[in-house]
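Issue: copy button drops trailing tokens. Both records pasted manually instead:
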Amino acid sequence: MARTVYESCARVLSDKVEYEEKERRVVVIGSAEDPDPVKTLAKDELLIEQLVDYCEDPDVKQAWKDGQIKYHRHPKERKAGARPLKVELPNKKLRDLLLDKIRAKPGRPTPLPAPSFIRKDLTPMQLQLEREAREEVKQRNLNAGSLSFGLRDFSIISYRNPRPLPKHYGTTRTATRTAPPSSLSADIPHSGDGSDAALLSDDASTAPSTSGPTPPVTRSSHVNTDRRGAARH
């Protein structure tokens, strides 16, 4: 009995720490990697710097200048491909400022070419809600006969200017062949049905791998070298 109580308490504390870490992070989905980890590191640093400049918040810019914004590809031990890029800010307030100011601007953020997008770092429960909401978005759009609804994190939003449904909407072909409308926010998959997120989502990119670990690179003070992140979402 005592062991069960201890294990339950330990799990709660562990979940609390993980949740607090996720509250400080955003995730860039769909940003391609280079086979050379050094080139990927340089590309990721440039992307984050561009996102920080794009949000135009002085506090976020200062945090970047001071080396307080950390980032890594997740999971760290998996071979390079299309791993999510996790970006951790010093606190939740700065995380929200970065994300909100990027989303407040019309159209797709220039640092994020299609089909990449940015969102909060979601917990396993939130990822499940996202999957369920994705299906609801697809059904609503099919019922409306247009791209009238989208997904932001795990919440459903409506578009001010609906667009025609892409050909083969709701199938895997939509996710791989449909070009994104330039006016859609970057954190919403471009087909509107979430198919892109299904292919590029955080949980889909964290399956176990038999490949060896990526060689460590220490070029930038912004890089998160905490190996604990390799085992977390």
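Record 2 (pasted manually too):
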Amino acid sequence: MVIEKKSMLPPLDDAVAHSQRFITIVCLAAFLPGLGCYFCVAYSFFFQLDTVLNFTHAFPPVSYSIGIWKPQRYIWLLILFVHLPPRIIFIVLYRRLFYTFSHEAKAFEITLKFYALTLWLEPSGLILVSVIDIKSHFIIHAIAYAMWIIFFNFNMLLNVILTHFSGFKQTHPKVVKVWWFKLLMLISGIAISISTPFTYFYFLKHCNVVAYTLFSVAECIMVGYNAVFYALSYYEFPSTRITVGVRSKASLTSRTFSTTSTVQSSTGSNSSYEKGTNHIPRST
């Protein structure tokens, strides 16, 4: 008995897509992690004040509210993994934006490639600092925190540079205002970020509560900076909708066949149809 082998047909005959307004992406990718982190810190003060006071008699670092104390840890992990897919959309958008405005200068190309790398490294640091808590692996947690804050500052710096030198800054007066605001955030954000290792090591050496509080407050400020910086993308991508979907090769084939057939019937010639069918993708 001979069994005839047939190619398996794709289960989806047409595109399956979901379109979302960009403001929704901004809320999930920018505001959600910032507000979620502040919620965890506020929860610690409102419902676990004894734990906070027994711990340090000062403003505790964010790492304890999102990584040690419960239920804040579970709330934060849920927020983290909800915000990651929309955050990837930010990475794709900014890469495509600056590639659109790119020019032949070698330095610009290198900067753009490094920017694409730092866009991935920043959320990677955030994942590590959230999953690996400060008690179980302090050194790894500290490295992950440094990774997050360093690459966030690099992202601010490279975004400002690329916006200016790509020509995107000149496309609209609103983009110019956003650029200046980002520049101010960059300058102040770098200063705040640089202060954190100094205040922390000063605390370790002198057990100074004020230094520890300044370190913790700087952490919280940078969380807000991160949320606001990426939320500004709303003004850089006006009237933008994000469509995520799946389209089978069979759907593409049928659409191409339909298009070429229409061309044939309207021109009365077989040449265009034959040329089109040579490029029709086949299901395998």
